[in-house]
Structure formats: C-alpha cells, structure tokens
Amino acid sequence: MTAPSREPAAARITVADLGAMAARGDRLVMLTAYDAPSARLADEAGVDILLVGDSAGTTVLGLESTVGVTLDEMVIFTRAVVRGRRRALVVADLPFGSYEVSDEQAIESAIRLVKEAGADAVKLEGAGASLSRARAIAAAGIPVMGHTGLTPQSAALQGGYRAQGRTAAAARRLLDEAVALERAGCFAVVLEAIPPQVAAAITGRLRVPTIGIGAGPACSGQVLVWHDLLGLLPDRPPKFVKQYATLTDVVRRAVDAYVDDVRAGRFPDPTHTYHMPADELERFETQLRDRPTQGARRGGDDSAG
Q1: How far apart are CA 188 and CA 121, in angstroms?
Q2: Catalytic sites, residue numbers
Q3: What is 15-245's CATH number?
C-alpha cells in the first residue's frame, strides 16, 4: 500500500535569513501574536517574524501598561505562538523586571523563553544597561533583538507614550543607541515612534535590519500589534496604526445575535443537536417507563443510612 503523500515542512526562517532578506532589499514583515490560532493565521499569510510582545498586557490581560506582565505569562504566550507557527521566526519580549537586575538575570530569563517556551530569539528595550544585557544574552548563544525610540516599559521616564527623537540632540542619541545595540550583538533593532528621517538615517548606518513601528517607510521592515491591525480594541489606535479591519463591530454583532437567539429559544435548533436512532430512542423511553430513575425515588429504602 502506498503511503499518503505529505506536504513538505516549510523551512523555518532564521536570523541569518532575515539579514539576507534585508540586504536584498526585501521588506520584512513582523506582527505580534499571543495565541496559536493567531500565530497560524499570521504564519499562513507569510509574516516573517512573530513577536510575542509584552503588549499582551494591554491587549489581552487588561492591564494599563506592559509593566505588569510577568516572565511566567510570557512563557505561556510564547508556547502558544510556537505551537501555531510553521515558518516564521518567533521572538519573545523580555518583560519588565526580567533583565534589569543583572546580566545573569537577563541570561536566565532569555533561557526560559528559549528552552521552556520554544522562542527562537528574545527582545529587550532601551540601551544603557540593556547594552550589557544584550551582549550577555548574545554571548550565551541566544539571538537578541534591540528596541529604541519609544520604549513602553520606560514610557514614564520618556514623558508618556509620545514620539521620540524630535530634536537634533534626541535624534543623535537614538542613532548612537541603535549603533550601540548592533555592536552589542543585536541581530535587528526595533525603531518605535520616531521621525522617518531619523529612522532612515539609523537604517542607513546599521548593518542589521531595522523594524519600524511609527518610524516611516525607510526601515527594513514593519511591525504592528495584532489587535490594532484588526480593530479589536475599543480605544482609538495610535496615529501610526493602519487598521485593516474593524472586527470589534463584527464581534459585537455576532455576540448580540447569539444572546438574542438563546433568549428567544432559536438556538440550538435541530441542525445544532445530536440525534439518536429511532430504535434506540424507543428502547430508552421504554426503560424510563418501566424503571423510574433513582432521582425520582424518595424516601423508603433509598433513604436508609
């Protein structure tokens, strides 16, 4: 008997692949994901990088910021995303508090995301002490992605969620930070909420790819948050977000219809129920007539203790 043919497994994208793609001028596509079904859909659409972002705190967990997300939660989200992907590179965020204390803490946290959760790489925010952390993680053999510009974990120090690098001095600082992240071993750098001219200058100076979010078209690639892209959040999205759907309205209409159907007795109908063969149903009904259920008998011998 001939064995059924199987579709060959898709080749997994690697860090080296991303560098080669960017060098050829191919635009890199990164998208956040927090569960297996979302990861599968994004992967099937051809997304190159799945970012398991600590943005899960505000999009999934109902937190006011990303600061409250724990490493244990990131492990759970990352495991789910890894189960849903076939081809894309999976990058997991190091959440606030999981790498700031020391290089050793950063390595231990990164190892958990790779060894326990199956991530291909990790991402950390900022420069400063993060340069040492990035260098240590890379030296431990774990690919690390940098992130500069608006860094949500330290947004309070940056004056809130606002664009960065809008003065010459601030722009120069971002350029220096990006170069330092590359030198520390980062295989790519996320540039968030900065003027496009600054992003273009940084991208032109780096040998590794840049991934923009609110940083203009000159970056090597772009990233958006799943819930922003699909219009799944009630709040107005940031200026740099392009919504490709407004699924909040679709979901609301669907749930409203479900509530109405249940209360009106329209759901479930015969097409949504399981049926017994007629002879088995007749036999069951005969049993009910001939032998009352135990729940129908009260008192007597059944009540003796």
Answers
A1: 11
A2: 192
A3: 3.20.20.60
| Residue 153 pLDDT grade (very low, low, confident, very high; cuts 50, 70, 90) | confident
Looking at residue 240, the DSSP 8-state letter turns out to be T
Q: Read off the tokens for 99.
A: 């790498």
Question: Which residue blocks in the chain are alpha helix, DSSP H?
Answer: 15-24, 36-44, 56-59, 71-84, 103-111, 129-139, 168-183, 196-205, 226-229, 247-264, 278-290
Cα separation, 9 vs 184, whole angstroms: 34
- State how far the alpha carbon of 45 is from the alpha carbons of 14, 39, 87, in Å: 18, 10, 11
CA-based nearest residue to 51, from 7, 103, 90:
90
Ramachandran region of residue 191, left (φ > 0), alpha (ψ -120 to 50) or beta?
beta
pLDDT one-digit tens code per residue, 31-46:
999 999 999 999 999 9
**DSSP-derived secondary structure letter, 216:** -
> What is the C-alpha to C-alpha distance for residues 231 and 239, in angstroms, rounded to an integer?
13
Beta strand 49-52 with 188-192 is unpaired
**Spatial distance between the Cα atoms of 161 and 223, rounded to a whole number of angstroms:** 17
Task: Tell me the domain boundaries of the chain.
Answer: 15-245, 252-294
- Give the whole-angstrom CA distance, residue 183 versus residue 168: 23
Query: SS3 for 77?
Result: helix
Over residues 196-222, the mean pLDDT reads: 98
